């Protein structure tokens, strides 16, 4: 399962609207928390999102790529915050919020969450998350992943901010 | 030299985010890493021994593929290596 603050969830959807008709992309920082109890699934708990640049200027409307050097800096930033990279997000302009063959072929971060938002005519519509499961390139798989949005926590955070 | 391990590969370093490995060159250090943590090897290298195409290795802020001396670059104790798998995709169905 993916757990994310409402503000971060809205921010990554807004990012897709801002870059429309091109794809946006970014990184999810947080912690992977082992499942509690028998057979309980682990949770990728997002605590911060980081916007990244899409280097695929040749085909930015249907492809994305984050420069590895930018990823190195984001991983360094995560380390400084005591967080880990737990996933990524990108948008599909005028295309369903489902992973494509390209998304699957280019996915290599096992146990991480891949969020996809469909953006139709500039408006964010559906947001889905997929967990890259498996132990290697030979048996990796995208699994549908539930998203838990922390609205109450976000409201409390906002109230604190306005106090 | 410290090597930073990406989240998915920490399962093979006992959960460690940073491991310390000795060696005189970047290539030595990387080879020694797979001796210390043998389960990492198939995730980093092809069966032919080539670094997998989606695995990027950075010496501080530089991709080792583009260093003048590549893997033969001298390894200093204060340098850092970062392993970072690539991130890409998109709605297009052409990989």
Description:
The complex is a heterodimer of chains A (163) and B (95). By secondary structure, chain A is of the alpha/beta class. Chain A has a single domain, classed as Cytidine Deaminase, domain 2, CATH 3.40.140.10. Helices cover 28% and strands 39% of the residues of chain A. Chain A has helices at residues 6-19, 68-81, 101-105, 151-162; strands at 2-5, 25-33, 43-52, 64-66, 84-93, 113-120, 123-133, 141-145, 147-150. Chain B has a five-stranded mixed sheet, with no helix packed on it. Chain B contains two helices and six strands, in the order ββααββββ. Chain B has 95 residues and is an alpha+beta fold. The longest helix of chain B is centred in the first third of the chain and has 11 residues, at 26-36. Chain B has helices at residues 26-36, 41-44, and strands at residues 2-4, 18-20, 55-59, 62-63, 80-85, 87-89. Chains A and B meet through strand 2, strand 4, helix 2, strand 5 and helix 3 of A and strand 5 and strand 6 of B. Strand 4 (64-66) of chain A pairs antiparallel with strand 6 of chain B.
Reported by name, the CATH topology of chain B is Ubiquitin-like (UB roll)
Helical content of chain A (DSSP H or I, runs of 4+): 25-40%
The DSSP helix count of chain A reads 4
Mean pLDDT of chain B: 92
Spatial gap, N to C terminus of chain A:
32 Å
Largest sheet of chain A: 8 strands, mixed
Strand content of chain A: 35-45%
What would you give as the CATH superfamily of chain A? Cytidine Deaminase, domain 2
Q: Helicity range of the residues of chain B?
A: 10-25%
Assembly status: heterodimer
Which structural class is indicated by helix and strand composition of chain A? alpha/beta
Rg of chain B over CA atoms, rounded to whole Å, is: 14 Å
Strand content of chain B: 15-25%
Instruction: Find the CATH topology of chain A.
Output: Cytidine Deaminase, domain 2
């Amino acid at each position: 399962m993916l757990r994310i603050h409402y503000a971060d969830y809205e921010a990554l959807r807004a990012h897709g609207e801002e870059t429309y008709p091109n794809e946006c992309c970014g990184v999810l920082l947080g912690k992977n928390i082992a499942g509690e109890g028998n057979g309980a699934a682990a949770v990728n708990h997002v605590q911060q999102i980081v916007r990244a640049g899409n280097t695929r200027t040749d085909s930015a409307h249907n492809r994305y790529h984050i420069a590895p050097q930018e990823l190195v800096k984001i991983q360094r930033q995560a380390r400084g915050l005591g967080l880990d990279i737990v996933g990524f997000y990108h948008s599909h302009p005028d295309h369903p919020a489902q992973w494509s063959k390209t998304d699957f072929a280019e996915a290599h971060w096992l146990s991480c969450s891949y969020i996809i938002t469909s953006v139709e005519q500039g408006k964010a519509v559906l947001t889905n998350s997929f967990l890259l499961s498996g132990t290697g390139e030979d048996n990796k798989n995208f699994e549908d992943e539930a998203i838990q949005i922390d609205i109450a926590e976000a409201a409390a955070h906002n109230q604190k901010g306005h106090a | 030299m410290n090597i930073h391990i990406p989240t998915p590969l920490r399962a093979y370093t006992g959960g460690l985010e940073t491991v310390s490995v000795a060696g005189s060159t970047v290539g030595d250090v990387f080879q020694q890493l797979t001796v210390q943590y043998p389960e990492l090897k198939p995730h980093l290298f092809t069966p032919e021994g080539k670094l997998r195409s989606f695995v990027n290795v950075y010496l501080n802020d530089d991709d080792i593929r583009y260093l003048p001396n590549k893997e033969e670059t001298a390894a200093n104790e204060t340098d850092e290596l970062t392993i970072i798998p690539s991130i890409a995709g998109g709605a297009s169905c052409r990989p």
